């Protein structure tokens, strides 16, 4: 305990009224002097005595218990501290600092380590939380042990002063460089089939030109050369609706602190403007109206539908202008604007000269270039006018045998169809029968449905960049009409069309990866009975090999623990998937250079300093206790303020100007003033 004496004032009228009375008294005395009163000094003494009496002065004797000043010691545990010798140097410095600070009994030391999973290094926020319950007159200061990359330092001129001085002890080699790539700007969405511009930047201590690798949705990577240190636009063609993952990579440079920031990614949502469909019906039939009604019922579909009412070989004296409102625009459709369509459907079409061989060759190229073709085969497909006897045969997955089988049969899913994303949800449903089947032999692709004698009924195939579907019957309209209980006509066609439009959720071979928190989850959809080996690449380039577990026929899942922010890549059986754990451009990897420049302005503002430690973290500056004002850092020393805070345990008060004494002295002074004025 410490005994202390102090002078105390507690005005009877409260401080606001007291100062008002003093102001009035001063004004009155000033007026008295201006009017040449003869007792100015005496009256001034009287007013001073009155003010002193009203202030109620007293002598207070206290027993005080000194309170220790509070200092904070915060260790940076962010991911950037794991490079080189930073972590070991920081640990050594932290242990020595802790020992020195705790040896000072007049100091309360509060210790905290930053969250290693944060997106960025948030030391100032940690300091504010640590000191939230400490009165500002007890704060001695704070010390950060870090690599200098602190992302939440305040920029205001007054912020941090009350909690300072804040010192920084910086570890790490300042001369080590690092090559990194980041996406400066990326759109959130774009129209499928159009291009979107990404703005990327490569930073390299050596400068010059750097070769980038850019891939979309795990596809073939393209090589692009960019100049280091400059923002560069990259045009990206959006290939599908939904999530499109763009991965940008740069090879290792001459100097590298980590490879985790040599790869980054962005997710772009593909939005389909409208689905443009060309439906060509070979002749009027029951299925034609069903196809038309289905496609017209979807407001996102732009449908162009032509029905060939009279082929050229047929003798019919009906005037042409009564058969069609316009001439069939074959050249415009199959030459000029063919690529404008997303999907072409042939319903029971017979090759009889309306669409020439050259146009059909154009259509084959349209498919290989990324177009979609769906054929609903009818009786003509088995004859000499079949599309299988045209240039279009090069992209068809099945060829007719020439036999047409009649009689009721019930379509059923094949084993592949039970696993394929298009038809797997239809498994287990009861379907009505069909009456006609165009016998065919599958030559490529996947047979999803079978007809009589397990012959291929519905086949889908990938042809280069495009996709083809073939239905070897003209009886699907029976399902739409509810014959014999009907069947999933609309659902089957919609799912088939979406597969042709490359919707990710309908891919029959698909690897997906989700990286969140401390777990990476992978799912594989395949048509095979077993899953190929899985490899998971971490942002640092380490390879993990999780084990697949079968969830359902053709569906496998796996999990792996992860502990880093950044881009993860999974690969299995030629399929690839990428996922971000955290933001696309983590702050921790934006700049890995050990630096004193970031903290220096803030530390100076709070009265502190920034010091660089050696590789071992052992050359810690001297720690001194300094006064509450003045500099708190110097050449190889840092200061923590001595606040001198205390708690009063007991006190006694003795009035210095009792009321009777004050009144007597006031009367005496007034009498002297009156006497002086009366002379």
From TrEMBL:
The chain crosses the membrane at residues 12-34, 656-674. The keyword Transferase does not apply. The keyword Membrane applies. Keywords: Membrane, Transmembrane, Transmembrane helix. InterPro entries: Class_I_gatase-like. PANTHER family: BLL2462 PROTEIN. This is Glutamine amidotransferase domain-containing protein.
């Amino acid at each position: 305990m410490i005994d202390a004496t102090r002078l105390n004032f507690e005005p009877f009228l409260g401080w606001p009224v007291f100062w008002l009375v003093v102001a009035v008294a001063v004004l009155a005395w000033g007026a008295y002097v201006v009017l040449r009163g003869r007792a100015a000094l005496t009256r001034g003494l009287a007013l001073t005595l009155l003010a002193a009496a009203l202030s109620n002065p007293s002598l207070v004797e206290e027993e005080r218990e000194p309170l220790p000043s509070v200092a904070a010691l915060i260790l940076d545990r962010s991911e950037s501290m794991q490079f080189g010798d930073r972590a070991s140097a920081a640990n050594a410095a932290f242990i020595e600092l802790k020992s020195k600070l705790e040896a000072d009994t007049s100091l309360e030391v509060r210790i905290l380590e930053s969250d290693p999973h944060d997106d960025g290094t948030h030391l100032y926020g940690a300091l504010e939380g640590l000191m939230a319950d400490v009165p500002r007159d007890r704060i001695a200061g704070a010390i950060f042990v870090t690599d200098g990359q602190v992302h939440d330092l305040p920029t205001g001129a007054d912020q941090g002063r009350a909690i300072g001085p804040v010192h920084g002890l910086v570890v790490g080699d300042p001369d080590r460089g690092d090559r990194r790539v980041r996406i400066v700007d990326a759109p959130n969405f774009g129209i499928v089939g159009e291009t979107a511009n990404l703005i990327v930047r490569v930073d390299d201590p050596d400068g010059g030109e750097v070769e980038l690798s850019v891939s979309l949705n795990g596809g073939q990577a393209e090589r692009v050369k960019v100049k280091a240190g400059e923002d560069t636009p990259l045009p990206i063609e959006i290939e599908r609706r939904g999530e499109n993952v763009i991965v940008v990579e740069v090879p290792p440079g001459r100097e590298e602190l980590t490879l985790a920031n040599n790869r980054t990614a962005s997710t772009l949502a593909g939005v389909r403007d409208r689905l443009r469909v060309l439906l060509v019906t070979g002749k009027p039939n029951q299925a034609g109206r069903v196809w038309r009604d289905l496609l017209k019922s979807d407001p996102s579909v732009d449908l162009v539908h032509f029905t060939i009412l009279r082929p050229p070989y047929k003798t019919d004296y009906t005037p042409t202008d009564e058969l069609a409102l316009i001439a069939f625009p074959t050249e415009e459709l199959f030459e000029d604007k063919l690529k404008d369509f997303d999907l072409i459907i042939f319903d029971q079409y017979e090759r009889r000269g309306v669409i020439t061989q050259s146009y059909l060759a154009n259509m084959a190229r349209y498919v290989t270039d990324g177009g979609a073709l769906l054929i609903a085969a009818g009786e003509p497909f088995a004859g000499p006018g079949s599309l299988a006897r045209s240039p279009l045969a090069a992209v068809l997955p099945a060829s007719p045998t020439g036999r047409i089988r009649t009689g009721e049969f019930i379509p059923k899913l094949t084993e592949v169809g039970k696993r394929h994303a298009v038809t797997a949800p239809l498994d287990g449903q009861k379907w009505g029968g069909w009456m006609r089947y165009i016998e065919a032999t599958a030559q490529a692709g996947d047979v999803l449905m079978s007809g009589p004698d397990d012959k291929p009924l519905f086949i889908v195939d990938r042809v280069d960049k495009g996709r083809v579907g073939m239905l070897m019957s003209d009886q699907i309209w029976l399902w739409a009409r509810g014959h014999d209980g009907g069947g999933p006509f609309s659902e089957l066609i919609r799912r088939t069309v979406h597969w042709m439009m490359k919707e990710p959720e309908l891919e029959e071979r698909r690897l997906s990866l989700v990286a969140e928190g401390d777990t990476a989850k992978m799912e594989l959809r395949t048509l095979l009975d077993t899953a190929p080996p899985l490899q998971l690449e971490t942002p640092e380039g380490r390879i993990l090999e999780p084990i697949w577990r079968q969830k359902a026929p053709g569906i496998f899942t796996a999990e792996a623990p992860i502990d880093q922010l950044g881009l993860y890549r999974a690969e299995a059986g030629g399929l690839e998937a990428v996922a971000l754990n955290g933001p696309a451009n983590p702050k921790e990897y934006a700049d890995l250079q050990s630096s004193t420049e970031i903290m220096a302005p803030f530390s100076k503002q709070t009265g502190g300093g920034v010091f660089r430690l050696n590789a071992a973290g052992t050359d810690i500056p001297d720690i001194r206790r300094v006064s509450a004002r003045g500099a708190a850092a110097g050449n190889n020393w840092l200061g923590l303020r001595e606040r001198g805070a205390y708690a009063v345990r007991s006190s006694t008060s003795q009035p210095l100007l009792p009321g009777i004494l004050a009144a007597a002295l006031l009367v005496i002074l007034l009498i002297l003033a009156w006497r002086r004025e009366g002379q």
